[in-house]
Design brief:
alpha+beta; Alpha-Beta Plaits; four-stranded antiparallel beta sheet; 29% helix; 24% strand; binds uracil
Length: 275
């Protein structure tokens, strides 16, 4: 890139002002004074100084999605030494420095977890008044009846207050099969499942037809909210998976893998956070 463009992008001065700095002999590239206006620099490897002070381009932010498996705590470091999501993403390296999770999923929850180095974007997405919709599929004990579904939709009272209106439907037929495949993908150990049901293993419940699949769309994100909502209507969660976050879907990203978001996806996220 041309030196004057580099300086302007780095915020040193306008393109015209940067040309003046170069002509005045105030700019060095790799230690050598450069006064020629057309000179090129490699933004990744050349050292550019103005009046002896190093000048760098602002770091481009990185946002990525992880298909979180069960058994990982959503934190970048855990004093108790449990496995964390930090082990699954390229945290702390080069352009990924400062990467942090946007919101959280419980250790047992699988699915779409966003990470970003852009603090402003993360805050906008989690802002209580602008929370973007996140969709979950839950395998639950029993099956919420029409009254339960209506309660969940309108709002249920939890220990920290009423929940906001939510989108809720009990999945049947093909939709239930798709949910089973999603949840099966992130299957926790049967020991885990047994701990949650308290009585019978997930496999036994599924086999006995004593469970159902429920889709829940929330615009808020309180601690263990989906689990607590479904528990409140007598249908404890056996397994939980987040399928979407605002305009983003996990798609066929394999469990435990991450991918960087494309520019349009980040733009769509910003747009969703503004709505
Ligand atoms: N709601 C929950 O109960 N758990 C999660 O991990 C996310 C939403």
């Amino acid at each position: 890139m041309r030196l004057q463009k580099f300086l302007a992008r780095a915020g040193v001065a306008s393109r015209r002002g940067s040309e003046e700095l170069i002509s005045a002999g105030r700019v060095r590239v790799n230690g050598a004074c450069v006064t020629e206006l057309g000179s090129k620099v490699d933004a990744d490897s050349d050292v550019v100084e103005v009046d002896g002070a190093r000048v760098e381009l602002p770091r481009e932010s990185v946002t990525l999605m992880l298909h979180k498996p069960a058994g990982y705590v959503t934190t970048m470091s855990d004093p108790q030494g449990r496995p964390t999501v930090a082990e699954l993403v390229p945290a702390g390296e080069g352009r990924f420095a400062g990467l942090y999770p946007v919101g959280r999923l419980d250790a047992d929850t699988t699915g779409l977890l966003l990470f970003s180095t852009d603090g402003e974007l993360g805050n906008a997405l989690l802002h209580p008044r602008r929370h973007v919709t996140k969709r979950y599929v839950a395998l639950v004990e029993g099956s919420p009846d029409a009254r339960d579904v209506e309660r969940l939709r309108r709002g249920v009272r939890l220990s920290d207050g009423m929940t906001l209106p939510a989108e809720v439907r009990v999945l049947e037929g093909k939709a239930a099969k798709r949910a089973a495949a999603l949840i099966g993908e992130g299957r926790a150990s049967s020991g885990n499942a047994r701990r949650h049901t308290g009585r019978r293993s997930r496999a036994a419940l599924e086999h006995a037809g004593a469970c159902s699949y429920v889709e829940v769309g929330l615009r808020e994100g309180r601690k263990r909210q989906v689990r607590r909502m479904l528990e409140a209507v007598g249908c404890p969660v056996v397994a939980l998976h987040r399928a979407t976050f605002g305009p983003l879907e996990l798609g066929d990203l394999p469990r435990g893998q991450w991918r960087e978001l494309a520019g349009e996806e980040v733009a769509a996220l910003r747009e969703a956070a503004r709505e």
